[in-house]
Amino acid sequence: MNIDQPLTLLGGITPQDFMRDYWQRKPLLIRQAIPGFKPSLSIANIKQLVKREEVESRLIWQDENGWNMKTGPLDRLPAASKPNWSVLAQSVDLHDDATAALIRQFRFISDARLDDAMISIATDGGGVGPHFDSYDVFLLQAHGQRRWRISQQEDLTLEPGLPLKILKNFKSEQEFLLEPGDMLYLPPHAAHDGVAVGTCMTISIGFRAPTEATLACGMLEAANDQILANLGDTGGLYASPVIPGPRLSETYNDAGIAATNQPAALPENLIKATVKAIKKVNFDKALAARFLGQWLTDIPCNAYFEPGDENIDLSQTPPVSGKLVLDRCTKLMYRGKQLYINGEVASVPASSRMRLLADNRELQCAEGLAAKLKKKELRALTDWLHEGWLHYVQD
Ligand code: SIN
Ligand code: CO
Question: How far is CA 64 from its chain centroid?
Answer without folding.
Answer: 37
